Write the C-alpha cells for this entry.
Amino acid sequence: MAYKTVLTIVTDVSQAHGQIDSAVAVARAEDAHLEVLCLGVDRTQTGYYYAGATAFVQQEVLDRAQEEARETEKAINERLSTEDIRWSTEAVVAQIGAIATVVGLRARFADLVVMGHPYGEGRGQELEAAVEAALFEGQSPALIVPDGQVVSLNARRVVVAWNQSNEAMNAIRKALPLLKSAQLVDITVIDPPAHGPERSDPGGQLSQWLARHGVKVEVSVLAKTLPRISDVINRHVRDTSAQMVVMGAYGHSRFREAILGGATRNMLEQAEVPILMAH
C-alpha cells in the first residue's frame, strides 16, 4: 500500500500554512497527487430561515460563501504554482450541515487526508466536521498536523496507541507506509486488561505482525497514572521524543465524545506532534 492520492480541505488559508506544507511534503515523499478542496461554508442551517429574512439575504449569504471559496482557491493556486508535485484544486460551497456529504465523497477516494488541528482560537466547527467526515463518511485515515509543524514521513520514533480495538488496528494498517519508514515504532499499551486475550503478552501479536512487514518494533506497557489516557500518551511522546502518534479514532460515539470528552477529542485538542487516526 502507498499514499497516491492525498487530500486536504482548506477553509481559511491564513490558518492552514502548516497543513498545506505538510500535504505537499507527503505528496512529494509518496510521489502522490495532491487534491485541495477549497471550501466556502454557508453557515445557515438546512431548512432554517431567519425571522424576517428575505430571499435577498439568503442569496447574499450564499454569494459570500462562493466568494470565500474562489478566493481560497486563488490563494492555493498561487501557493502551489511553484511546487514540483502533481496537484489540483476545487472550489466548493456547502452548508454547515452538509459538509459530511461533500467531504466524505472526496475523502472516499483519497488514500490519506491531511488536516490541521480542528480546535483552537479562530477555528470554526466546519474543521471538526471535515475531519469527522473523512474518518466516518470517507473511511479514510486522517493525518492531523499541529500548528507550526510540517510532518515528516521519515519519523525517527512513532508511538502506536494499542488497545486491541478495531479502530486501532485499522489505523495501524493504514499507517503501514509511515511505520515501515520509521526508525523505531513504539507499541504503547496502557493498563492492559488482566483477563484479555493478550494478558500474557500485551502487544505481542501486533509486534510480530509489524516485524514481518519489516517494521522495527518495541513494546511499552504503561500504567494509567494520569486522569486521562490522552495525558499518558502525550507524556510518553514527550519522554521518548516521538515524532508521531498512530491511534484509532472515536471508539465511542461522536456525540458522547463531544459532550463527555474522550481520547480522540483530547488528543486532537492537546497533541504536540502529528497524529494519524482512522475509525
The chain is about 40% helix and 20% strand. The CA atoms of residues 101 and 137 lie 7 Å apart.
